[in-house]
Amino acid sequence: MAFSDHDIYRIFLNSRPQIQRFLQQRIRCQDTAADLIQDLFLRLTLLKPPPASEIEVRAWLFTVASNLSLDHLRTQKRRGELLGQYLGDESDIDDSAAPERAVQARDQLQQIQIALAELPDQCAEILYLSRIEGLSHAEIAKQLKISTSWVEKQLAKALLQCRQAVGSEGA
Question: Do 117 and 160 have their domain in common?
């Protein structure tokens, strides 16, 4: 006998404290764990076909919680790498050129923000998923239900537009 939506929500509510502890141990942040619990709740509608036992529901809940925590940790790692790559170490900063570099960096940032705002929504989303979330082209294609070739073309378009924006600033 398959469980109804009401039964699945009841099992989720009963399992929530254990899932919360599980996520807190993995993420080491109570607020982030709470956010991931909310994401998990929103994904309950994706549980198809309905499981036949409470054990199956709980297994699905913990599997999805585990995947959400891994995705979060990968994203945090990728953001840290990007910050390290673009901001560098404090020892890399040349204080004598700081005012000019700050103005130049601010101008470049403004140009890139304008270029990003001009991108079509899907193109901007592909750029975000690739560069910020760290997803592969195949993962992006699967998530957005488009071809890998289209992902590559849109990503190339987005990067070209950003390069042109920064390059045209000095012209």
Answer: yes
